[in-house]
Amino acid sequence: MVKTLKEINKIINGELCGNGEIEICGVAGIKEARDGEITFVAHPRYRREMDKTGASAIIIGRDVVWNGKPVIRVENPYFAFAKVLELFARPKRQPMPGINQFAIIGQNVNLGERVSIQAFTVIGDNVQIGDDTVIGPLVYIGDDTKIGFGVLIYPRVTIREEVTIGNDVIIHSGAVIGSDGFGFAKVSDRHHKIPQIGTVIIEDSVEIGANTTVDRATITDGATIIKRGSKIDNLVQIAHNVVIGEDCRITAQTAIAGSTEVKDRVTFAGQSGVSGHLTIGEDSVILARAGVTKDLPPNSYVSGFPAIPHSKDLRLQASMHKLPDVLNHISELEKKVAELEEKLKEKCLRG
Using alpha carbons only, what angle is made at residue 167 by residues 75 and 180, rounded to the nearest 5 degrees? Predict the structure, then answer.
């Protein structure tokens, strides 16, 4: 596919600066781009690459200084670049609707139109699946589960019984939805398993990464809930009775303990963690490897363990780097004090 820069500008609704008749045949990162390709600058650290890139055109923010190379100015360069990527992306091979002969389908299964169920998938009894949903090979879907329309379930996903999946959801390979929550009562020196008989509700437009686990709630009327538009990375653990708000972002190796409520638009960076029974206020950011041990108000920006305001954590880290010098200084002071005490003792003995 070939598009002129003017045509691309019309698609992303930007402000064109330079020759709009340039032909673009592909997209690439700013360091890898070559003649005929378009790239973008969203992070300030890459602005210095604008003069060196081999790209024929660049998508930039409105605050970036134009260097004379053909550009399209937009409010959100990253989002605009995503739209251009969609334009030039190689079309994915769409699976044919229908049920593969090696799939196992239970009783009273209700399938919508144009549903694709691929080889070696197992679907339990009383399952409902909406229109245009694709279920990849080797998927397990338990009894009484409801799946909406336009859902994409990649191979080797496990969805346990009585789970509800909304519309336009994407679940990547290896994810487990509805596994038992980690609940045990200690009796003497033994651990007695607490039955986990609640459910999981995944709302519309949620994406769940590979090998992520979402545990079911403990009691019948309870639910672990992932609300509309939230995006969950690979290798994330969501424990029983957790509620994740709308449009949250949870990155790899994050763990959220049971009965925590995460409000809307919260971001968890990699390897962060949250203790159970907490509330995380909306629009908060938990930075990488932070450990949250108490409730956070809205718009919190925290790091460290235990998590504290990031500005305070930075000061603590700076102080820690000075600690060896401080210890050396204390050691020198101790030597001087010892010398002064010895001199004072000698003086007292002579006097």
Answer: 110
Sign of torsion, CA 58 62 63 66?
Answer: positive
CA distance 288 to 268: 7
**Helix, strand, coil fractions of the chain, as percent rounded to 5:** 20, 30, 50
**φ, ψ at 291 (rounded to 5°):** -120, 110
Q: State the pLDDT confidence band at 351, using cuts at 50, 70 and 90.
A: low
Number of domains in the chain: 2
Q: How long is the chain?
A: 351
Average of per-residue pLDDT across 170-184: 96
Q: Is it the case that residue 320 has pLDDT exceeding 90? A: no
Of the residues 240, 310, 321, 329, only one is catalytic, namely 240
* DSSP element (H, E) containing 316: helix 310-350
Distance CA 256, CA 268 (A): 10
Share of the chain above pLDDT 70, in %: 100
Whole-number Å distance between alpha carbons of 172 and 300: 30
Q: Is residue 263 part of a domain?
A: yes
What letter represents residue 148's amino acid? G
Nearest to 198 by CA among 181, 180, 218, 182: 218
My answer on whether 167 and 278 are in the same domain is: yes
Residue 161 DSSP one-character state: T
pLDDT tens digits for 256-281?
Answer: 999 999 999 999 999 999 999 999 99
Is 331 inside any structural domain?
A: no
Full-model pTM? 0.86
Do residue 81 and residue 168 come from a single domain? no
Rounded CA-CA distance 335/330 in Å is 9
Question: By residue range, what is the domain housing residue 35?
Answer: 3-88
Q: Strand 261-262 vs strand 255-256: parallel, antiparallel, or unpaired?
A: unpaired
Catalytic residue check, 240: yes
